[in-house]
Amino acid sequence: MNKIRLLSDLLINQIAAGEVVQRPASVVKELLDNAIDAESKNIKIVIKDAGKQLIQVIDDGIGMGAVDARICFEKHATSKIAHTDDLFKIQTMGFRGEAMASIAAVAQVEMETRLHEAATGIYISIEGSKIKKEETIATAPGTKISVKNLFYNIPARRNFLKSNPVEFKHILEEVHHAALARTAIGWKLYHNDVEIYKLAPEKLSHRIVHLFGESYKKQLIPCKETTNIVTIEGYIGKPEYTKKTRGEQFLFVNQRFIKSPFLNHAIKNAYDRLLPADGFPFYTIYLTIDPQWIDINVHPTKTEIKFQDEKALYAILQATIKKSLATHHVVDSLDFEQDTNFSLLRFTHPIQINSPQAAKERTYTQFKAAPSLPSFVPPKDGKSLFEDPKDNSATPISAQTVGALPHQHGAGTAVQLYASYIIVQVQSGALLIDQQAAHERVLYDKFITHFQNKNGASQQLLMPEHLVVNPVDYMVLLENEAILRSLGFIIDPFGTSTIIIHGCPAELSHHTPKQLLEGLIEQLKWNNSKHKLEPAECCIRALAKKASIPHGTKLNGVEIDALLAQLFSSSNTMYTPDGRKICIMLSKDSLATLLT
Ligand SMILES: Nc1ncnc2c1ncn2[C@@H]1O[C@H](COP(=O)(O)OP(=O)(O)OP(=O)(O)O)[C@@H](O)[C@H]1O
Ligand SMILES: [Mg+2]
Predict the structure, then answer these.
(1) pLDDT of residue 206
(2) Ligand 2 centre distance from Cα of residue 31 (Å)
(3) pLDDT at position 420, please?
(4) Ligand 1 binding pocket mutation candidate from 72, 87, 301 (most atoms within 8 A of CB)
């Protein structure tokens, strides 16, 4: 008996959809690509329920006649290429002729379309690759496509979708790519009937500011270069505005957003020592290359490109960025020592670490280690003079083991070095402590307790503050709102990009609430991309890091004593939650060795 059979069209399309349509954002991308290819001047995007209920794209492009409208849902149906040679002359976003067929296989799709010169348009509804209804209608020129109930017929895929804030964040990223690639197009975006963006055709610098916020006005450096291989233009961010996450880095080739770790490396390298090790600069760079030198048919999502002479491109791109950085004299104005992310949170007032009261001290021993802490193996360096205390993972240094509670070592025996480190004499030697790492551990333990008990104390603001963030950051905050509340934040989302801050965790009253929340968002994104942590763990780590006293902060004797007391009562005196070293022990013996 024969075992081999030809697959049905629906199944073929569903298999193709597996590659093209992974989530609502992929549908948005494909529909926007089509609207762009249709030479639209204005594109409106309407989203409901993060695209799970509805993704609608309305364009004023060329539209389709009745036959094209029907055939566009067939697999391998495209108006954009005809011959093999065309693959190397691609000027359009689409060319594979599979997006509409894939979408129609996994959603309920309705389309209204009309050619400009036609008196009437056509309406088609299609479900599971089958046309359900088709009629002539009165409609505006252009095309309106509504994709409803994505993956309605593949429950496993639908269940796989993430929360609405996460899915909408992906949609926003696709809208950012399209709106940056095509600044001559007017864009509107609505989510659940709320207007997110209304962008008129505008120049690139204005588009960047409208998408990402006013603060970008100060940080853009233009770059431009023309060679016989490539034309480069766009904006890069000043090094002092680098972020901890890759988020806002956009590279376009022939107006198509692409991902290229290789070219990204060229850009990052051009910044050389201007960036902190974990810093990502902003950039929106457009390369224009003769299509015959590139191959975009590498991956179904068309976000990867093969270049014929990648190395030359790398060199030209790097030189262009270097030139822009040099021309704009950022090198001279830079403080190489400064950690740009932490600088956001320099204290406006001296740090106040409340000296523990005798009655309260007992509670310090109640801090529990976070259950989800990843195990961290400290680096071994047996020859080092400064040694980790023996068996530190099993028995971290405590007040008892070193005899270093404030009343035991006496106020003033600890000394601060460079406003960043504390050296304190203990029974078996001297401890050298990184003040920021120590404070981060102390705060982390506090926040864990607050979170577990849901009792984070808040400091109410006299006047609520308004923080305006870009929609992606807004989504990050919404995703974590419940956790932030349990830690003591009193915040209200307002509109599409404003957070009203009524109160902050009491421990952090020395920070300005806006700076704290902004820094927190950045840290959250970084933690998420780097460590893939549980949301609560991610928030608590981020908050502890952002709120910890930075290097360069002078502490008085009482503050030092308070910090030490809290550190020695913490769940882990040796390492920060993300595994950085807090202190090292200089034993009496090694001191003697040093001096003989
Ligand atoms: N908004 C639109 N306006 C006008 N024509 C459209 C629109 N959307 C789709 N079409 C037509 O339908 C055809 C099929 O679209 P589809 O997205 O499936 O394929 P493609 O864009 O050619 O290639 P790809 O699969 O790479 O996107 C397009 O080639 C185009 O002719
Ligand atoms: Mg397409």
Answers:
(1) 93
(2) 7
(3) 92
(4) 72
CATH number of 211-336: 3.30.230.10
Residue 530: what pLDDT?
64
Around ion ligand 2, residues with a beta carbon closer than 5 Å are: 33-34, 94, 99
% of the chain exceeding 90 in pLDDT? 39
118-155: burial string, b at 16+ Cβ within 10 Å, e else: beebbbbbbbbbeeeeeeeeebebbbbbbbbbbbebbe
* 20 alpha carbon – ligand 1 mean position (Å): 14
Pairwise CA distance, residues 298 & 302, whole Å = 7
Pull the structure tokens for residue 380.
Answer: 């071994």
Model pLDDT, residue 239: 85
Give me the pLDDT at residue 90, please.
Answer: 85
Closest CA to 43 of 65, 25, 61: 61
Ordered by start, the domain boundaries in the chain are 9-202, 211-336, 358-372+381-588
Which residues of the chain are modeled with pLDDT < 50?
A: 330-396, 399, 401-411
Can you tell me which atom of ligand 1 is nearest the CA of 103? Answer: 18
pLDDT computed for residue 348 by the predictor = 27
The pLDDT score that the predictor gives to residue 104 is: 95
303 Cβ inside 6 Å of ligand 1: no
How would DSSP label each residue in 288-327? EE-GGGEE-TTSTT----EETTHHHHHHHHHHHHHHHHHH
CATH architecture assigned to 9-202: 2-Layer Sandwich (3.30)
Q: Which fold has domain 358-372+381-588?
A: Ribosomal Protein S8; Chain: A, domain 1 (3.30.1370)
Side-chain half-sphere CA neighbours of 410 within 13 A = 3
Is the distance from the beta carbon of residue 95 to the nearest atom of ligand 1 less than 6 Å?
yes
Atom of ligand 1 nearest to the CA of 35: 1
- Per-residue model confidence (pLDDT) at position 102: 93
Question: Do 9-202 and 358-372+381-588 share a fold?
Answer: no
Q: Is the CB of 77 under 6 A from ligand 1?
A: yes
Predicted local confidence at residue 186, as pLDDT: 97
Task: Report CA(144)–ligand 2 centroid distance (Å).
Answer: 14
Q: How far is the CA of 234 from the centre of ligand 1 (A)?
A: 29
**What pLDDT does 412 receive?**
53
